[in-house]
Amino acid sequence: MTFPRLLKSIVKAPFMAIASAIFGVLIAALLLLASFLIHLIGGFEQGQISQIVHAVAKQLPLVFGVGGFVSAFATDAPIAAVFGSARWATGRELQKLSAKDDGLLTGRDPTTGKLLRYDGPAHLMTMAPTRTGKGVGTIIPNLLTADRSVICIDPKGENTVVTGRAREQFGPVHILDPFGVTCKHSAAFNPLDMLDPDGLDIAEDANTLADALVFDEPGMTGDAHWNEEAKALIADLILKIVIAESPGRRNLSTLREYLTLAPERFLGLLARMQDMDEAGGLIARAANRHLGKSDREAAGVLSAAQRHTHFLDSPRMTAVLGRSDFRFADLKRNNATVFLVLPPDRLSTYSRWLRLLITQSLTDMARDPASPARPVLYLLDEFAALGHLARHGSHGRLWCPALADPPGHPSAARHLWSPSGNLPVECRRPSGLWRQRYRNRRTDRTLDRQDRRAVHHQVLERGQELVVRAHLGA
Q1: Where are the beta strands (DSSP E) in 57-98?
Q2: Where does the chain cross the membrane (predicted)?
Q3: Which DSSP symbol is given to 416?
């Protein structure tokens, strides 16, 4: 207990003792009245029981008074309850949060009306049901005021429309909107443009892109063998595209073309790959590996690879992945904003596109040695659609750079803020990247939370944490 709270308890103790003693007198009077009425109506003579009742009644005011006096000093003790040991912030704690002029907006002090800001290094999470203010209370205020680079997943396109022009005061704005939700010209980004044919990391970079493409939604998990072999085949074909194809064909549309060739032409492609010495012979060895499989297994691997790249048949995807209008690494050097707009009704089919771009952005920033003045902010609305990005969990743990990366690591320059309608399945699992990322957040914002299971999970994860009761005005 702090000294100010001790003084407060000392002043409060006599009043609580008097009030409790008065309550004890009332209880004693009721007890004596009940004893009197029982003897009067029943005609019983007063005996040993009556004497015990009178003795207890005499001591009740003293007992209640002492209890009230002691309770003044015990009110701050943690009490186990449904919501754990969390407590509301004091005025002094709120004052510290509202005294900052820089940082991410997390709320408003309901007493003073001042904005609350977080400028620490860790991640943030906002959880709330639909139509309870995640957009107007979290995303839009920060997009309007954050003087830093931002990558924002915008499922409805509303954030782009409302804040796109305002973001231009901080730097270039790139809107990737393949389905024209915002009615604005769409930028494009080709992940294969970032692969260096002569680089030592080209095989790893190809594997990273393949890992982003091969993804099963919860409840649709395929056989691990077919998925892993499909990743290997896709990575090998990406290597071939980057090294052997002309610049105009170095894109994922060519990958889809390869995977959907007629059987005879596909075998001819693999035969040509066997004669390639580039990439240290990796392409040739990959072709040998696939041709060495039985017909049934090879057909299963090819079928799995086709399934995971089916979204590339869309002309809209072809356009938005056909060129690169910017580099993600540049966001660390100069302020810029990237909006990734994908409507909710297409989120399931085209979530791999989001995975590709988020994966490539993290890879590019990790490789760039520049250190930004302010961390790049990732506003990952509907982030559960990204699934489990295993490679970024095992290579540098890029999802939690501020708390888990090695000291001085150049990737420790990002904030992840995940507004979500509910706690994703990945966060509820005992292990997994999203659970690791969830545990590495520092600030939770929960709006109108009535789902008992979600509340219970949040309580278990928070432990003894400070809870700030605040709001953001529209």
Answers
A1: 87-88
A2: 21-42, 62-86
A3: E
Which amino acid, residue 370?
Answer: A
Q: Rounded CA gap, 436 and 341, in Å?
A: 26
pLDDT digits (tens, 9 = 90+) for 358-407: 989 988 888 888 888 888 999 888 776 676 655 443 332 232 222 223 23
Nearest to 448 by CA among 169, 24, 137: 137
Asked if the model's pLDDT at residue 460 lies above 50, the reply is: yes
CA distance 244 to 278: 9
Residue extents of the structural domains in the chain: 3-74, 89-189+325-467, 195-316
Q: Are 27 and 60 in contact (CB under 8 A)?
A: yes
Predicted confidence band of residue 152 (pLDDT cuts 50, 70, 90): very high
pLDDT, tens digit (0-9, with 9 covering 90-100), for 227-277: 999 999 999 999 999 999 999 999 999 999 999 999 999 999 999 999 999
Fold of 89-189+325-467: Rossmann fold (3.40.50)
AA letter at 24? G
Token pair 């240290």: residue: 280
Query: Hey, which bits of 110-170 come out as E strands?
Result: 115-118, 123-127, 150-154
Between CA 110 and CA 242 the distance in angstroms is 56
Give the three-class secondary structure for 454: helix
pLDDT at 76: 53
The owner of tokens 């994966």 is 359
